[in-house]
Amino acid sequence: MIEFDEVHMRLGEREVLRGITAGLPERRVGVVGANGSGKSTLARLINGLALPTSGTVRVLGLDTRRQAAKIRRGVGFLFTDPDAQIVMPTVAEDVAFSLRRKGHSREEVDRRVRAVLDRYGLGGHADHPAHQLSGGQKQLLALCSVMVLEPQILVMDEPTTLLDLRHSRQVAELLRQMPQQVLVVSHDLPLLAGFDRVLVLDQGRIVADGSPEEAIGYYRKLMA
Ligand SMILES: Nc1ncnc2c1ncn2[C@@H]1O[C@H](COP(=O)(O)OP(=O)(O)OP(=O)(O)O)[C@@H](O)[C@H]1O
């Protein structure tokens, strides 16, 4: 469960979020809106990467202002730019990095890393230099590094921007299957079809909130 209560966010001179209130218990939540409407800022508030100027964000029943560290253990976050998330030289080492820090045995780490790379189509790339992957493969690697930690909630900011049609469909299918709650910020409207709820942001406010058909229909009119 993700809850925003009268959330305002000021960045520099700009009020980027202007009174966001929403309880989001649904399993698949999409967020759409024009460039600069505040979507990424909203996503970053969910795991305490950013704190609201006023108002409250509660995730898994915890206030991001007080318990960000605990929230971050339960919330996986996927950034738009996968390069920002690569920390180790090879694909397998990168996925293993966060698991090792959690104190798992070497065998357990290897088993889990192999399983997640196979699941997301990177099984044949385990020993490749991570920075030499294609953009789309890097995005899949970032997804592996997050999913291997088995987060309770997954927040994704533009997860399909760099992916070709086949890989976008693969990610869309994976999102449908994941047992976790997933909140996805995206301009990829087909990705959000079948979601439980879609929010439309405009100039820092929620201007539509409903089924993908309703919300995306509203968004299309807004952009016309
Ligand atoms: N650190 C910052 N300081 C000042 N303004 C910022 C900062 N970060 C973001 N902004 C501004 O906040 C507004 C909202 O940005 P945000 O990235 O949340 O929008 P977005 O809806 O995700 O856009 P896009 O679709 O282009 O990714 C933009 O006008 C942006 O310029």
From TrEMBL:
Pfam families: ABC_tran. Residues 2-224 form the ABC transporter domain. GO terms for molecular function: ATP binding. The keyword ATP-binding applies. It comes from the Bacteria. InterPro entries: AAA+_ATPase, ABC_transporter-like_ATP-bd, ABC_transporter-like_CS, ABC_transpr_CbiO/EcfA_su, ECF_ABC_transporter_ATP-bd, P-loop_NTPase. The keyword Transferase does not apply. Keywords: ATP-binding, Nucleotide-binding, Transport. Belongs to the ABC transporter superfamily. This is Energy-coupling factor ABC transporter ATP-binding protein. It comes from Nonomuraea purpurea.
